[in-house]
């Protein structure tokens, strides 16, 4: 066999390479498509879509921007209460009921608007639904008797023990122990003042007049100070606790990030090839960095919470450990890419190793280090929210508590808005600091 036969021509080599690239270009999309098809059936996406309850999702979304008032009657004692979100802190006094709730003896009427009228009486309860008819419920022989136009629509769920009605005007539940009507209204009620506050129900102009020139409501303090204190100590929304929780969250992120940066900087020198001549030591430090940052921050949070107990400082330690590994890797790589000519120039003046590092190395890597530290500070502000939910500190704790109640979704929305605003502020602050410290602008 000749050498020409053993070695293909240049044209044949190019043709073969182009064919291989073409197969690769077509093969990758086919593999991705096959994987997506597998996940479609493996995760049972059709079944997930069939099990989805969009009505529940819509109710949840409406709870984000609205509040509901509970009109409840204890069927055993006959006591009727009207409370915002069903909380004792939001219960209306008997002489301050909303205008859509009227009471006359044992009869309570709830006007949900649009002709929807609920009536509680001694015999049971009735719900008049326009366009459908009257839903009448009477307890008889330890069970509930429902009288309503047949067939029952899907927005009425009825059994011997409970009847639930959901309409666009509100919700109505009747059980043997109690009967409740929920009226949804837009806005976050009692956001500034609770019902027991002397400033409840007053508009902005009235509050401004009281604060500026009105007679003192409390002789011991000014109206402006009294108004601010009532907002700050609001028992429903707890603004004072929320502000402190935000401070704890930012503090966790700041302490964890800055401590990690201070620890990682000297360790970065030990892992950089141009500063540490011993390969074994460099290898050991780099593997330590890999191990620390390879374990997710949430795992470190759980471990540390078992060791040190819950609290914001535990969250700061978790951030510090995780970021020490990340900073150590980035700092060592930045040190390996410095311009050695500047270091040699300072060395020629007889400077010591510490002086060479201080005047020849640090000024070169400072912009990169500061940029990375500020970015991680911004990112850790978001992470501190989740970490706080585990270690019991910061805004994450309040968010978790609100979610666990399964009813305070307007508070969940409030905390989410504050978290987004906090991240936006930290982003703007870190950008301003980068411009000032790095670019000098």
Give a description of the structure.
- Helices cover 57% and strands 17% of the residues.
- The protein is an alpha+beta fold.
- The protein folds into two domains: 119 residues, no CATH class; 201 residues, MetI-like fold.
- A hairpin with a 2-residue loop joins β5 and β6.
- The mean pLDDT is 87.
Content of β-strand: 15-25%
CATH homologous superfamily designation of the largest domain: MetI-like
Structural class: alpha+beta
SSE pattern: HHHHEEEEEEEEEEEEHHHHHHHHHH
Would you identify the regions where 5 or more consecutive residues have pLDDT less than 50?
none
Contiguous helical run count: 14
Number of domains: 2
Biggest beta-sheet profile: 6 strands, antiparallel
Name the helicity range.
55-70%
In the CATH classification, which architecture of the largest domain applies?
A: Orthogonal Bundle
Q: What's the N-to-C terminus distance? A: 73 Å
The overall pLDDT average reads: 87
Radius of gyration: 33 Å
The CATH topology annotation of the largest domain reads as MetI-like fold
Side by side, the strands of the main sheet go 2-1-12-11-10-9
Choose one word for the global shape: extended
